[in-house]
Amino acid sequence: MNEITQEIMKLKDEKNAAFQAKLSPTIDPKTCLGTRVPDLRKLAMKAEKMDCFEEFLAELPHEYYDENILHSILLSRMKPFERCLEQVERFLPYVDNWAVCDTLRPKIFAKKKDRVFEEAMKWARSSEVYTCRFGVDMMMTYFLDEDFRPECLEIPASIVSEEYYVNMMIAWHFATALAKQWDATIPYIEEGRLSVWTHNKTIQKARESYRITDEQKEYLKSLKR
Q1: Would you list the domain boundaries of the chain?
Q2: Which of 66, 126, 132 lies closest to 100, judged by CA?
Q3: pLDDT value at position 173?
């Protein structure tokens, strides 16, 4: 067993494991050790200096859910850009739940947005559930503010999926887009460009947001399908 995995084992919490497994129903409960994310973030700083660091990154697939969470944290901290991108590409095929996917937020991506945009378009078009979710997440994270691009609405709107964790991310993305880019986004709701479930979930999440005005919330309510 890798020394980093041994360190993870020291942090396990059986009671918390049962709770975490319920939050991520796509994982085998037996793979969940119940480690807490703040503890794993502390471990990440230690792991980066350990001799077995590269070995840990190379050991895919991991046995435990907690190893995957730590892996996402490590990649989120990684520099330089090209190495981080390469490692993200290696890791994505092994991501099998929303928590690991959403923990993967490489900080270095903010430095190379043109390149990240190209990759995000590719990821969002993937048939793999969590690769697709990650691609939409990157669009939501980096391209709804000053670097807004219309493609970051068009591409997610074009995704046709029966997968809950894809459609939930699309809804989250469009609810955020309504808060940040109302004029560009509202036509997608008015024209019914999203599936019925995703459309209504987008409206629900947007109406729960403090960044949406009361007037906008009432208008969105009138657009429910």
Answers
A1: 1-111, 113-225
A2: 66
A3: 98
